[in-house]
Design brief:
homodimer; Uridine Diphospho-n-acetylenolpyruvylglucosamine Reductase, domain 2; Vanillyl-alcohol Oxidase, Chain A, domain 3; 3 domains; five-stranded antiparallel β-sheet; 17 helices; flavoprotein (chains A, B)
Amino acid sequence: MTAHMRIEKAMACLTQIVGERATRVPGILDGHGRSEAYHAARPPDVVVFPESTAEVKAIVGLCRDLRMPIVPFGAGTSLEGNAASLEGGVCLDISRMNTVLAVNGEDMDVRVQPGITRKQLNAHLRDTGLFFPIDPGADASIGGMASTRASGTMAVRYGTMKDNVLSLEVVLADGRVIRTARRARKSAAGYDLTRLFVGAEGTLGVITEVTLKLHPQPEAISSAVCAFPDLKAAVDTAISVIQSGVPVARIELLDAVMMRGMNLHAKLGLPELPHLFFEFHGSKAYVAEQAETAQALAGENGGLGFEWASTPEERSRLWQARDNTLYAGLALRPGAKAMITDVCVPISRLAECLVETAKDIAETGLICPVVGHVGDGNFHLLVLMDPEKPEELPRAKAFNERLVDRALSLEGTCTGEHGIGFGKIEFLEKELGEAVDVMRAVKLALDPLGIMNPGKIFKAPGQEGGHP
Amino acid sequence: MTAHMRIEKAMACLTQIVGERATRVPGILDGHGRSEAYHAARPPDVVVFPESTAEVKAIVGLCRDLRMPIVPFGAGTSLEGNAASLEGGVCLDISRMNTVLAVNGEDMDVRVQPGITRKQLNAHLRDTGLFFPIDPGADASIGGMASTRASGTMAVRYGTMKDNVLSLEVVLADGRVIRTARRARKSAAGYDLTRLFVGAEGTLGVITEVTLKLHPQPEAISSAVCAFPDLKAAVDTAISVIQSGVPVARIELLDAVMMRGMNLHAKLGLPELPHLFFEFHGSKAYVAEQAETAQALAGENGGLGFEWASTPEERSRLWQARDNTLYAGLALRPGAKAMITDVCVPISRLAECLVETAKDIAETGLICPVVGHVGDGNFHLLVLMDPEKPEELPRAKAFNERLVDRALSLEGTCTGEHGIGFGKIEFLEKELGEAVDVMRAVKLALDPLGIMNPGKIFKAPGQEGGHP
């Protein structure tokens, strides 16, 4: 069967399964080949919009029969080409599977279809007294967040997706449908399959249901920003706050360059110095106590005073500006595209990593604002590139490679939260060495035909010499 | 080669690797076939005491060449026969690998060899301002706790081993040594191999190093006990406390029968009614606030008043009594042995599960004190059996089977924290169905010869029809 015939056959069979929800309209194919990253589009041959686990199972069965790749697609907000259709095939857009299936208030958990976004979920939960805290900035889908082991600003307090997924329903490459765990809060029942699929980027199966932990909406929230004379003072403050046991809900680092972008984009009117943005959750008295402790520690480390955002409006303006750092960064170089780096190092090595990186930036002449989840040691640089100047891409890539090498030499990781996708395959090899062979062995055991999101995380089993 | 010749050969080679630290002394073999469980001893053929990763690697290579089982053994405190040598072979006692390799204070982590026990580790950390909170009661080894995904009384606040292991060094069945992750606080770098080995009960490899998260020693700690008229009032209180967002450090349920045992064993002099034992961690003011909230919620739910244990001595007496519930239970029936059950259900189903179980206990005529990590929905029954009355064992087993069926029907798990070992293989099949085939596929990929702790978690790949 030629590739063309295979696609025709797939389209005919998919139409039998989902009717008009299978499409080859070029604009839709192209849209599903793109993400928020700088990579060139890698569109699929067909996009299909399933509405149920049964449909996903049928589609996976079809792709298996036809040996066609299956690429799950959520909200399209990933940053490492995690949902690029590198080998064409069928893109499984799960955005119509966005139902809340069950809210269990007493147990503080919720069962959802994977296509629901985090904001849709929190809107649904508003009156329950509970919320889902993981906030990667973008309004990502829950399935996508699980698949990339996402985290974001609140991970320092509430953990990452690894800590907040209780159980998954997954359609395997051979069409079987499994549930990885029961709804109990904890379990020691065999291998932790939930955590195996969280972060697998769709290479082991398609997530069709997610049971999430929820958290009580805090009685009180307060936010503050604090400027520092240099990055090290800000990082030292973060270390002191974490070590003091203050369960800070968010503690975000923004460098002077990023502050300039934010002033440009969101008219914050803040000094163009390194800043920490804080948020505290808890009872009224406890929030006050946390803030007082953090304020004192900032003072001891050279902080230039807390500015409070106590009303919901001020708070929301502040965190909206933080969520929009991509656009704030782009405001520094209109027309640019950003390569977003994602290293994470032990917090004791963070200042060193940032200072060395600042020197590198100065030498390269790139514009690279910094924003970081400093409580976790994870930070992003927006490497701004002019698409009209193609010579900047290799410079940016070389810079990122040096950054990753620096992070690895400091016991860090090449990705705190964006995943490997296809852009960081060689970094993963550098980072974990033979452990990647273990991943490959697991992949081969669960997807021997290699149809699940091929070319991601590692080179395909048997193709280690090649390149995706 | 006969079995006898193989053992002789192994012993000769092991002596070359570790000298006199390989032994066939019958008392030592027998000691390594036993645990704290009621199961009959299943001793290995040889016990070896490695002192380094290099020695473990050499021993695994030898066992591979000779096709001999390898059973890692920590402190011998597991409860489901997790370290029983079902098929003989080499028992790898890692108790001499108990060095603290690096304390990173600023990063709040520690790298240890797996044989160190949690009490040894906390003694080492005493002056650092940090501690390792996971407390399963017994003074288990860190490697064993990682392997069984242990948790215990503080999991409600600090999580389980899954949440507190940052990285592992593992010797695989083929002798390769991998590190599962870097020391960064979080990572999205490929499959979560750390969580794959946490809870694998030594069936996928031998853990030779563990990097753990640590937590700040709380500025203040306070403990209280509260009696309730019935179990439901106690459970409802626990639900309210958790939902209120109070980050209770421990919230333990003890039923009236267990309280009688504790009064007998530890002379607590408390009313023989269902109790909650609380512990609060934090700043002085915040501990007071948490306690006040919990006290109010207990009052609303029929609690009969808080009794405070504010001095370190009183607190330690209370929690020591809690840690010794096994002996307290045994005090109710001198000479008895205990089968310890371990179901965990969503907290909203806990009261129902406990009440139905109490009826079952009444009908069987068994004596079964209850102790539970009620914040997680996990509880244990000590099914007391007279070893002189062998007919009690099948009765106890049938009771446990009904209990597991009940938990499963309430969306729970057969094991909250003790693991599957060889005693719960059929329960795991009932609980997760085809997902167990996925575990088996992973096992086959990483240990094709089936030498790593055979007969645990599931029937061996290819032997699904048989029985371990």
